[in-house]
Design goal:
50 residues, mainly alpha, rod-shaped, Cyt-C_aa3_sf
């Protein structure tokens, strides 16, 4: 059996964890503001289209 004591991605060459975290933070911001925008559009539609 293979030895599984060390996680492979932590020792792999070419991993850029700082870039990964920056991308993840950007994604979270996009989801947050996208959700706020859609909610605002729905609220405005409820007000002005009824």
């Amino acid at each position: 059996m293979a030895d599984h004591h060390e996680v492979a991605y932590t020792t792999a060459d070419g991993n850029d964890y700082a870039a990964h975290e920056q991308t993840y933070e950007g994604f979270i911001k996009l989801v947050k503001w996208g959700t706020v925008s859609v909610a605002l559009i729905v609220i405005l539609m409820a007000i002005f289209l009824t």
